[in-house]
Amino acid sequence: MSWSSLIKVFSGLFLAIALLAGGGLIAAQYLITKLSAPPPKPIYPNDKPIAKTKLPQPKPVASEKPTDTPDSVEVAAKPLPANAFEARVTQQIGLILRDAAGLDAGQIGGIEYNEKVTVLETSADGEWQKVRLQPSDREGWIKAGNVEKTSQ
Prior knowledge:
Layout: H1 3-36, E1 85-89, E2 95-98, E3 107-111, E4 116-122, E5 128-133, E6 139-143, E7 147-149
């Protein structure tokens, strides 16, 4: 056997080992990536679909306007407490708006993810926050820790 044929055998063997090792690394990386991703949320036949419903707004009552007042009268906004701040909802499934601080309080609506609110106060135990919804000026209580202060 000559030196050139011996070099060919060893280089072929080295190339085969390198290809097997590279393929194994790529396969391992693929499997690790697939197995580390969380599975999608299961959907069961008895699940109710989540519908984005807006609560009906009260209709304005038609009344006669006095003739001596201008047509565009600005309504004064409710005053804000000194410690109030603007925030946005960070809970991705949204929040339940309640009429009082506590899990046993009645539900009066909901707040969607990323919706802007004004945090008016925090309960004495720090578990609940009273908020005012931006467009509708409705007020209610939400579980604390689910909003993030905006930079305004």
